[in-house]
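sorry for the late reply, my laptop died twice this morning and i had to redo everyting from scratch. anyway the thing you sent over, i finally got around to it. pasting the sequence first so we're on the same page, its 249 residues, then the predicted structure underneath. double check i copied it right bc i was rushing
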Amino acid sequence: MNEIINVQNLNKKFGSLEVLKDINFTVHEGEVLGIIGPSGSGKSTLLRCICQLEKVTNGSISICGTPMVTDGIYADKKTLHSIGMNVGLVFQNFNLFPHLSVLQNITEAQRLVLKKSKEESEACAMDLLAKMELETKAFAYPCELSGGQQQRVSIARALALKPQVLFFDEPTSALDPELTGEILAVIRDLAKEKMTMVVVTHEMSFARDTSDHIIFMDGGLIVEQGNPQDVINNPKTERMKTFLKRFNQ
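ok and here's the structure:
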C-alpha cells in the first residue's frame, strides 16, 4: 500500500510550551487512523500541523510521498499548495458559510480551487448530497439545518475537492448525542470505501471498531499506539487505563 502520511520526530512549541513531543507515525492508503486522548493532549494541534494551519517547530512531514517539511524546513509555496490539495479537514464546528446555500457551500471551492464549471461543480455537489441523504436540502441555508445535517454538508464539501486523505477533528463534539450516530455512520461508510482518514475522537467504541491503527496521546506525547482492539481492550500503560475508566463506568 502507498504511504499517504509520514510524520517523523515532530515537535511543536507555543513559546516555551511544548505541545507536541517527538511524534512518529505513518498512515497508508485506505487506512483509518484513530487518535484519542484527553483534552489538551495535542490531538487537534497535530492535525493542524499536518494540514498547514500551524507551523511545526521541528521534525518532518510527508504527504503522498512529497516532503512538506523536513527537519523543520518547509518546502516551497508551490509544493505546499500542491500538498494542501491532497488534504481535506472537517472541523468540529462545521465552518459553513452562513450566507451561502448548502449547494453553494459545496460548489464554491470546486469553482475557485479546481476551476470547475458551474454545471460540473453542481453535479458533483448533488451526487455528494445524495450520498449524505441531503439532496432535498440543496437550497437550504446552514441555519435551517440540524447540527448533524450541517456536519454532513461539511463532509460533502471536503470530499468535493477529491482529497487523498480526510482529517476529522472531533466531528461529533458539537452535536447532541442523538445526532452523533449519523455522523459516525457516514465516517464508517467512508472507511468501507477505503477512504484514507485520520479521526480525532472521544467515541471509544467507534475508534476501536473503525480504525485500522490507533494512537493514544497525553501531554503532547504518543503514550500508546497499535491495533485498536489491543490498545483499548488491553491497555499496557497506567495512564491509558486511567483514561479509559471514565468511558467504562
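DSSP finds nine helices and eleven strands in the chain.
thats about all i looked at so far, will dig more tmrw
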